[in-house]
Every structure is written in C-alpha cells, then in structure tokens.
Amino acid sequence: MGLNQLFSEKLAAHGATASHKWNTKKVENGRNFSQIDFDRAKKEHAQLPLKSKDKALH
Q1: What's CA 51's distance to the chain center, in Å?
Q2: Over the range 16-38, which residues count as b (16 or more CB within 10 Å of their CB) and which as e?
Q3: Cα(23)–Cα(27) distance, rounded to whole angstroms?
Q4: Can you say whether the dihedral through the CA atoms of 29, 34, 39, 40 is positive or negative?
Q5: Quick check: pTM over 0.85?
Q6: What stretches of 1-58 show up as alpha helix (H) in DSSP?
Q7: Residue 45 to residue 52: CA distance in whole angstroms
Q8: Sign of CA pseudo-dihedral 12, 15, 28, 47
Q9: 8-state DSSP, 43
Q10: How far is CA 17 from the centre of its chain?
Q11: pLDDT digits over 6-45, tens only?
C-alpha cells in the first residue's frame, strides 16, 4: 500500500467522523435555539452591511 493511499484512507475516515460530529452538534444546537434568540440573530444579520458579490471568498 502506498503512502498516498494510506493518507487518503485516514483523511476520508477523519472527514466522515468530523462531519458526523458537526452534524450532531448542529442538531443539538437547533433543539436548544429559542425563537427569541433566532429573531435577535436575524435582526442583527439584517443590519449588517451587504458584501458585494465580486468579493467572493478566495
């Protein structure tokens, strides 16, 4: 087995684990997120200045 293949397998395994943990965390946060907090966050977001579309992430 080449080093690249070993690395790819480890990376794939880590990616799957990290992704699963992140998804679980998102679901837990969603359950604990109150409507008041949601409205407050939405209001704050609405007040942020809009970024122009040509300044895409690099």
Answers
A1: 20
A2: eeeeeeeeeeeeeeeeeeeeeee
A3: 6
A4: negative
A5: no
A6: 3-32, 35-47
A7: 15
A8: negative
A9: H
A10: 14
A11: 777 776 766 666 666 666 666 666 666 677 888 888 888 8
